[in-house]
Specification:
By secondary structure, the protein is mainly α. Helices cover about 80% and strands about 0% of the residues. The chain is built from 7 helices and no strands. Helix 2 (about 20-50) crosses helix 3 and helix 5 (about 90-105) runs antiparallel to helix 6.
């Protein structure tokens, strides 16, 4: 069967599900905002117990990562992401989900060759390029910041 690129594009367009961008963007915005609001509530609660701003921020991050990993483990995070889309990719919770889901998928291969080797399948490149970019930016700042 020989299909032209134009015919393939038409077949792909017809087979693709129709999405309502206005609804998708609104839901993603609301869910992302709810995650951020939850983080702010946690931070305010910690500060009200006497934690300083920096300590409360650290614990808030730890709690959000743990909550995201837990929800990933019991299968709720993926169900939420199915409906909320990009709203669940708020950086810290989305990153925790990415690491946790890789670990869960690899657990049948054992702790060392499965979970240990594949836990950073998605997160590894993010960490690598993030560190590389920060070193590069630091170098540029060092060289050009003096001017």
């Amino acid at each position: 069967m020989n299909i032209t690129p134009k015919a393939y594009a038409e077949m792909s367009r017809e087979a693709s599900p129709k999405s309502n961008s206005k609804v998708n963007v609104t839901v993603a915005f609301m869910v992302g905002g709810a995650v951020c609001a939850l983080g702010q509530l946690i931070m305010n609660a910690l500060e009200s117990t006497g934690a300083d701003h920096s300590e409360a921020g650290t614990w808030t991050s730890i709690i959000l990562v743990a909550l995201s990993a837990f929800l990933t483990g019991i299968g709720w995070y993926s169900r939420l992401a199915k409906h909320a889309g990009a709203g669940t990719l708020v950086p810290i919770t989305g990153f925790a989900n990415a690491v946790s889901s890789c670990a869960l998928e690899a657990k049948s291969e054992g702790l060392i060759l499965g979970v240990g080797a594949k836990i950073f399948t998605i997160a590894g490149p993010v960490i690598l390029y993030g560190c590389f970019a920060s070193a590069l930016y630091g170098l540029f700042y060092y060289i050009f910041g003096a001017f």
